[in-house]
Design a protein that fits this description.
By secondary structure, the chain is an alpha/beta fold. It has two domains: 134 residues, Rossmann fold; 139 residues, Rossmann fold. It is built from ten helices and twelve strands. The strands form two sheets. It has a six-stranded mixed beta sheet with strand order 2-1-3-5-6-4, sandwiched between helices. Strands 9-8-7-10-11-12 form a six-stranded parallel beta sheet, with helices on both faces. It binds 2'-monophosphoadenosine-5'-diphosphate (ATR). 2'-monophosphoadenosine-5'-diphosphate binds next to helix 5.
Amino acid sequence: MKTWEVSGRTRLVGVIGDPVEHTVSPAMHNDAFRALGLDYLYVPFRVGKADLASAVHGIRSLGMRGVNVTIPHKMEIIQHLDRVDPLAAEIGAVNVVVSDDGILTGYNTDAEGFLNVLMEHDVEPEGKNVVILGAGGAARAIAFALADRGANLIMLNRTPSNAARCAADVSKATGQKVEVLALDNRRLADAMERGHVLVNTTSVGMYPSKDDSLVPAELIRPHFVVADIVYNPHRTRLLADAEKAGARTINGLEMLIWQGALAFEKWTGKKAPVGIMRRGAVRALKSYEK
Ligand code: ATR
């Protein structure tokens, strides 16, 4: 097998975010580049909020092909780009940037990635009552994708004003009504009583606070599909409780892999080798869990 090494022609991509210490994206993308014989390299860049504008200039000046964008920049980055894809503009969040000779275009693959995962699990959003916990950048993409497919959304958030803003934007773009509730156990119980699908879009349950969950286990019933965007640990407390209750579960790694696969296709123009990306992500996650 021909070995690969960085050369003067290697195209650079990466992720900008803070923190990035536990990212599995480099393993996922570099495995895919090597498998397809593509001369690309993926590197994580820790970029704090104060450095976002100069980091975006760096994409242009270093001649990078693009980046993934993660916490806390998904919304803030929009103002620094040359173009924003209409879907990403409606969602109000960008997780992929493509540079065409220094012209930067922002896309959102979180929404389509989430729908791909639902399809893999045979979950049809239309007419379902979906309980969404959180109202940040990830929640926006997920809420938009679900509402666009005809789901009824009940959004609960610690800070109801953030959810009200998110819900108004999603309603305006999709024409679907989005109910907003403050996140407390009484309101959550009411929402779960009416729900079919539950999606946690908050960071609650993420390593190192892996015993935390926003949802009392007794509220989860067997007919539920429960999805968690947290992927470290792989099986969060919420997903473990859902399994015990007999519900179906979708873990955060699946959503991460699909948004990554769609980003890969935007940078390279090639079909993403999803199985290889999944194995790379799982290997990287295991190495962090050691
Ligand atoms: P992202 O862009 O990745 O979605 P974010 O914008 O920081 O990240 O959003 C995090 C979401 O998780 C928010 O809805 C946040 O609630 P607030 O709007 O009240 O800040 C929610 N969140 C984070 N930590 C939480 C906690 N300990 N309990 C409840 N909600 C939490």
